[in-house]
Amino acid sequence: MTTIRVAHRPALGVYTKIVAVCTFLLLLAGAMVTSTGSGLAVPDWPLSFGKVMPAMEGGVLYEHGHRMVATFVGALIVGEALWLWRIEPRRWVRVLGWFALGGVILQGALGGLTVLLRLPDAVSVSHAALAQLVFGLTVAIAVACSRSWLRDGAAEAVDADAFSLFSLAALACAAIYLQILLGAVVRHTGAGLAIPTFPLAFGRLVPPLDSFPVAIHFAHRVGSIAVTLVVAWVAVRALRRHRSLPRIVGPALLLLALVAIQMGLGAWVVLSYKSAWVTSAHLGTGALLFATALSLALRSRRYLALAPRPAHPPIRPHREPAGAR
Ligand code: HEM
Q1: pLDDT tier at 163 (50, 70, 90 boundaries)?
Q2: Does the pLDDT at position 2 exceed 80?
Q3: What is this structure's pTM?
Q4: Ligand 1: distance of its center to the CA of 166 in Å?
Q5: How far is the CA of 220 from the centre of ligand 1 (A)?
Q6: Which of 107, 139, 282, 284 could be 265's S-S partner, Cβ–Cβ 3.0 to 4.6 Å?
Q7: Across residues 8-12, what is the average pLDDT?
Q8: Ligand 1 pocket check: which of 26, 35, 187, 289 to mutate, most ligand atoms within 8 Å of Cβ?
């Protein structure tokens, strides 16, 4: 990440935010396709029943609707990458734009493949996993093009801890993303109700782990405890050490709120026997959790790690040993 001074461009700032919000809505639209079991409601691709616009009824509404939203968001991301390429002086931000573009193209291909191959688990899981990465990229671009990021004198404090807040937030991103991957495997291998009770599993703390669906479902539950601990660690560190920095405190508090909501929604997914709305909200909150941890990592890099540090260790006044003169 370079420290080139870049002027804030309000139009680009707004556009990148719109792209991130629309990508989130696309995630929700995709979640509803799986949650309502509409993945094969349209059996062909790229056309739908050989048409550009089929009758929007039943599962077709979700599946074809998802394709329409995806086409729109794909166009927005093309526009974003080109805009950044034309005017953005920071190379790393332009590269993020190209990655988002490559990701959304690959995502379209995976979406098509998953229909043509009749929803193989590996392709469906990859489609779910890449969707979250593309969303993360659009969020990172929006953060990097925001007014507060580009404001002068952004570095406001020194992070002197051995494990910097940046590295802790990066750890949280990795933990959340792994948990999202586990969730995708649970969902696409049909293991969502492999353990149909909560909080206990078949009346026990640890169920017999002799079948894949039970083992992967249980791994997702254990993963949620690990994610909660890591998120709590990051947030408490941010709140204790940097409570005067609203740009650090904001995402730290949001992380705590989102992880609590996500745990509740996870339980509700099971207790509601996978209500489509609850399950989609669980997926969406997972994405928001990931994006918030990413935003905290970027902000701590920007506002803490770039803080002015002394170039040399402080020079101690020279003292002659007693009696030297
Ligand atoms: C911070 C913790 C959690 C995160 C980040 C998380 C994330 C996710 C995500 C993103 C998915 C959907 C993946 C996809 O289809 O792309 C998912 C699925 C699922 N999660 Fe979680 N989850 C968490 C905690 C929990 C908890 C505590 C439970 C409680 C049992 C739970 C139960 C489930 C179930 C049952 C599914 C599969 C739903 C289905 O089959 O449609 N999750 N999780």
Answers
A1: confident
A2: no
A3: 0.91
A4: 26
A5: 7
A6: 282
A7: 94
A8: 187
Q: What is the pLDDT of residues 186-245, one digit of tens each?
A: 999 999 999 999 999 999 999 999 999 999 999 999 999 999 999 999 999 999 999 999
Ligand 1: which of 132, 224, 271, 288 to mutate, judged by most atoms within 8 Å of the beta carbon? 224
Predicted local confidence at residue 320, as pLDDT: 55
Spatial CA neighbour of 285 closest among 309, 264, 258, 260 = 258
Q: Going by C-beta distance under 8 Å and a sequence separation of 6 or more, which residues neighbour residue 304?
A: 155, 156, 157, 158, 159, 164, 165, 166, 242, 248
pLDDT of residue 104: 97
Give Cβ neighbours of residue 119 (< 8 Å, ≥ 6 apart): 39, 40, 188
Q: What is the CA radius of gyration of the chain?
A: 23
CA 91 to mean position of chain CA atoms = 22
Question: In angstroms, rounded to a whole number, what is the distance separating the alpha carbons of residues 175 and 165?
Answer: 15
Give the Å distance between the CA of 285 and the centre of ligand 1: 10
Look up residue 302 and give its DSSP letter: I
Measured CA to CA, the distance from residue 170 to residue 295 in angstroms comes to 10
Measuring from atom 1 of ligand 1, which residue has the nearest CA? Answer: 224
Q: Whose CA is nearest to atom 41 of ligand 1?
A: 187
Q: Exposed, middle or buried by CB within 10 Å (0-12, 13-18, 19+), for 2?
A: exposed
Longest dimension (CA), the chain: 99
Where exactly are the structural domains of the chain?
Answer: 9-151, 153-308
Instruction: Output the residue whose Cα is nearest ligand 1's atom 26.
Output: 266
Residues with CB under 6 A from ligand 1: 128, 176, 179-180, 183-184, 186-187, 192, 198, 220-221, 224, 227, 259, 262-263, 266-267, 269-270, 274, 279, 282-283, 286, 289
- 244: Cβ contacts below 8 Å, ≥ 6 apart: 157
| pLDDT tens-place string over residues 287-314 | 999 999 999 999 998 888 544 555 555 5
